[in-house]
Design goal:
alpha+beta, 5'-nucleotidase,  domain 2, 2 domains, 5-stranded mixed beta sheet, 15 strands
Amino acid sequence: MPPSPPADPEATPTGDEYTDVNRCVNFNGPEMKSIADGLDDHVRVIVSAHTHQPYVCRMGDDDKLVTSASSFGRVVTDIELTIDRKSDEITQASAFNHIVTQDVKRDRRAQKILNKYTTLSAPLANRVIGSITEDIRSSRDVPSGQNAAGEQPMGDVIADAMLEATAPTDFGGAVAAFMNSGGVRGGLIFDQISGGEQPGEVTYGEAFTVQPFGNTLVVKTCTGQQIYDVMNQQFNNPAADSNGIMLPTANVNYQWTTVGGPHIVDGSVSFDGGTTPIDKGAPYRVVVNNFMADGGDGYTVFRSCTDPLGGDVDLDAFARYLGLHSPVAPPPLNRIEKVD
């Protein structure tokens, strides 16, 4: 059993494995502090997410407790509250992050619930929706499908599906699509058999593994300058390398370089297969998912693009694309070029 939380909520456990996950050392960025400062004083605890970091913090003038449980089920946060029954106010709050050690015996009751819903969902998850000619890999696969420029076949296919769903005038009139690499959660493997299908066949469950977030497609009007600006935001992450590259549609080409610091090569972005650079003063309808459209992954320029039009759930567009174009082949990685 893991050690109990310390009596003093501000104290640090003695084991090194608990020290880093129960302090504020893993937290970075001003956004959460801004949120904490902006919330009513009656809010005493913030259970935060999407930072992918474990931490227990105190923030704001009123000392709000802010927690996060890392990612991928690696940590479980134990929060204890003391509530005044008369005022219904929280008088004390403490939190402790327990590391999931993977040596706990399975709970039979929880497993029974999981088995029940696995059986109920199997007909949908195992439904064949398309096929592939060979592996279409992502950056997360082993071996990785990502090249030195940050391009990956799976992200390219998703971008193509996004554009096909939104190119018609009635659905946004998009002329280009961009997919965030962090949203591509896996690839499609030719010999993977998940529900009794034949090699090369893709099930709905396998497609869901690739795009599990249920984001919707959003078409916005961005100027050429805004497109350059948002593409340069790819390199604002602490590790300014190819891990955060946006994946574009087949008609989009661009170059980036590390000379003088990572940035998009000026004049290299085109929406016609590499023939004509986009006009920085002209408007272009581009499609992204709603996470990106609202500034997710640091792409804040997308917030200032105009005339948003919502569309399909991204997974629906992806599944339809697979069905219409099967068997789908991995595209050549020639949309992004890294030059030094």
